[in-house]
Amino acid sequence: MIEVAAQPFPFALDPAHVALVVIDMQRDFLEAGGFGETLGNDLTPVKQIVPSVAALITLFRARGWPIFHTRENHAPDLSDCPPAKRLRGKPFLRIGDLGTMGRILIRGEPGADIVPELAPAPGEIVVDKPGKGMFYATDIGERLTAMGVSQLVFAGVTTEVCVQTSMREANDRGYECLLIEDATASYFPAFKQAALEMIRAQGAIVGWTTPLAALQGALG
Ligand code: C5J
Fold this sequence. Notes:
This protein is an alpha/beta fold. Helix content is 35%, strand content 21%. The strands form three sheets. A six-stranded parallel β-sheet has the order 7-4-3-8-9-10, sandwiched between helices. The protein has a two-stranded antiparallel ribbon with strand order 1-2. It has a two-stranded antiparallel sheet with strand order 5-6.
């Protein structure tokens, strides 16, 4: 076990059973013309974490530890996108509408892909998910079980939506979850802060949080 300084107390990282999950670092959430911007969000905070997420991926790649990348997206016929999701709010383009990066959040379209700086390497697992949580309507649970993974290190966007939902789903399934604070972001910095506090409250009720430097330091 490798002890990682974390909140609310040190995280005992097990190199034989850990995997990295990078949530939804897609062009549709980070780039102009994408889903995030159609909802009226300022993209600055989510763009800022790209170098930290890249460094975290490098840390796992260097050790040959498993890496999962999720993408929130939908089938071209929208059969996996409930109207309650598509019609929510007042974006200037809805899921499935044609934007500057193809159809918004549709599988296979340029906007639904992961940003080039964080492109998955051969052997890394890409999980397409129609919901906020990574276990809903995906096979990630079976894959993690088959690989003997019991601990998940999380990064990605947005902290209080898909990252937190996925962490909560994982926590309920018995995974120990560590969120890297500077490798996750929200369009709303206050929501990120609140999510970090919720996750580690009450003795790590959902999981632990730590800065990237603490994980790098622990791994040497
Ligand atoms: C959102 C996500 N915020 N990846 N998706 O709609 O957090």
